[in-house]
Task: structure prediction
Amino acid sequence: MTDASTGSTATPPFGFPFPFPFPMPGAPGGMPNPAAAFAQMTEQMTKAWQSEFEAMTKKAAAFPKVVEAAMNAKKGSTPHEVVMSEPPVRLLRYTGKADKRHGTPVLFVFALVNRPYVLDLLPHKSVVRQFLNAGFDVYMIDWGTPSPADATKTLHDYVEGHLHRAVERILQETGSPDINLIGYCMGGTMSAMYASLHRELVRNLILMAAPIDWSSRDSLLLTWTDPKHFDVDAIVDTFGLIPPAFLGNSFALLKPVANYFQKWQGFYDKMDDEKFLEDFFAMETWSNDNIPIAGEVYRDFVKYGFQQNRLVKGTFPLGKHTINLGNITCPVLNLTADADHLVLPCQSTPLKDCVSSTDFTEMSVKAGHIGLSVGSRAHKEVWPKATKWLSERSQD
Amino acid sequence: MADATNQGNAPVDPVTGFWRDMWARYAAAAGSMPGMGAAGGATGDSPFGQGAFFSPDAMRRMQNSYFEAMAKYAEDYMKTPQFLESMKRSMDQALAFRQQMDGFLKSNMASAFEAASGGANTEVLGAIRQLSARIDERLTNLEARLSALEGAAGLENAAAPAKPGKRAAKH
Result:
């Protein structure tokens, strides 16, 4: 027999295979009094129902605010202008009030599977603003929504085509000889590829939860995309453009309980908090704003990345090139999220052994994949350090 | 007690495992509440102790226990060969259905209405894209040859400062 108040529990009755928290007959507390127990239970249940009823009334009263917040959900918060357009791709330049203190501009490269405004979701959760306030000229590539005409675009077209032309345009516009490249998730992998091919144009490279090594089998996504169960060729040949619902549901299914139950439970609990509603609907709007991905890009990424893990082996084909991450010599800041279930930290950290950079910094934050950009902890702990890191290595 | 230990070590099917784990989490959550467990029993009152067994906080703990157990077993299940096999089967069926639909629309509907089908559009787009790639390649070759000729003629110094695009091409 043990004491539950000390953290352990009483002896399980009838060979129960799990700890039993209530005192048993013969326990130090003795046999409970049934009448007292019933009275106490009734009292507690009444109180619980009263409390729940009050909470429900408050939540019902908050319903108009919920509708208003849902209708007014924002898609990005910082003013910007379009400086280049290659439909559907656009290059955005953010306009901030802070003085420009650094000559080297910053270019954000987001993944192709979602919209990039998560990096500028709300004023208090904007990575873009962190860099604007640190005195950088900030640009971002918005890949747009591919049409069937883009279905045959390859990863090479994106990296050596759109991305390269965006870099050229920024250099032309700012007069800077090089650029600071910040890549997020798949955009990080593409940025690393670009930096390996154009090292003279990339002054500093920052990667956020970028998959580099797909050898780990801990990730559910890697288990699902195993060639034994996943025929990427059949999918691409059938669909052309990979449907956004397919991608969105696959990501949501990685954490089914959190995404389909706990999220809504959390929403119900806090739906009378206006600040929470603003954050919640901004996030919901973004996470449901999925876009299709060009089939050939998907084929390249799944086949050479997920299934053959060619990037760390130095054999990832990109058009007529073969990507050798060892060509990267610029300073690198590699950011990972401890609780990332989409790109496990162990998929990003091997970058250190692949690049030739002598100036290599790693930072980690206790957050999930998206928490790295919108989490309050990341904005408090990581981004001030990251902007400082970049400021020290950029041209004045 | 010995039985319980044996039962705990014996292999269990996933459903039983889920329920056992969930109840263990429930029990742990209930046992950690103030005034619960032996503390409540020690006063000789009831299993509901001094604390509030039905309080929102207690309910939340129980609910979290349930979600944690569900999340763990959902993740474990989605790694099993059974799930992966069923995922593959349903995906194959969905792809086959889509191919049949595309084939039907392309062959029957498009010709019946004398209209271009989605598949036909894709083929045209693919052809245009191939053409564009070939032109791009030819232009790149021409650019390289022109640069070589300029270099040979000693015109390089007279040329304007290189644009970023030109520098970028040297990789």
Notes: The radius of gyration of chain B is 35 Å. The longest helix of chain B spans residues 118-152.
